[in-house]
Amino acid sequence: MTPTRISPDYAVAGQITPADVAEIAARGYRSIMCNRPDGESADQTDAESIRAEAERHGLKFAHVPVVSGNILPQDVTDFGAALDALPGPVLAYCRSGARCQNLWILARRP
């Protein structure tokens, strides 16, 4: 897992596993957000498994599933609300990290 820092309080990564959560916590992240719908690919870990491990490590978790290549206005609104509610720094993940980065760009406020 190699996060890409987008801002001081937000970074993105590709798909994570429960085994990555301890490292995420050790790096100082306080929250994890999943922007990937469950079942998008056969090899992905479901969001509830990540949530359980995140909570075990004292991290907050949000699941804002967004279909790749089809970000809707409501997705951006939901993402922004989740980001506002989570303590930072936040690590968001999807298949590659690009969807999480695009959501952050679209949700940014002047």
Describe the structure.
With 110 residues, the chain is of the alpha/beta class. It is 35% helix and 18% strand. It has helices spanning 21-26, 47-56, 73-85, 98-107; strands at 4-7, 10-13, 31-34, 60-63, 90-93. The chain has a 5-stranded mixed β-sheet, sandwiched between helices. Helix 3 crosses helix 4 (98-107). The model has no long low-confidence stretch (mean pLDDT 95).
Number of DSSP E strands: 5
Query: Radius of gyration from the CA trace?
Result: 12 Å
Spatial gap, N to C terminus: 31 Å
Query: Helix and strand succession?
Result: EEHEHEHEH
Chart the SSEs and their pairings.
Elements: E1 4-7, E2 10-13, H1 21-26, E3 31-34, H2 47-56, E4 60-63, H3 73-85, E5 90-93, H4 98-107
Parallel strand pairs: 2-5, 3-4, 3-5
Antiparallel strand pairs: 1-2
Brief account:
The chain has about 110 residues and is of the alpha/beta class. Helices cover about 35% and strands about 20% of the residues.
Please name the defining characteristics of this protein.
110 residues; alpha/beta; 5 strands; 4 helices
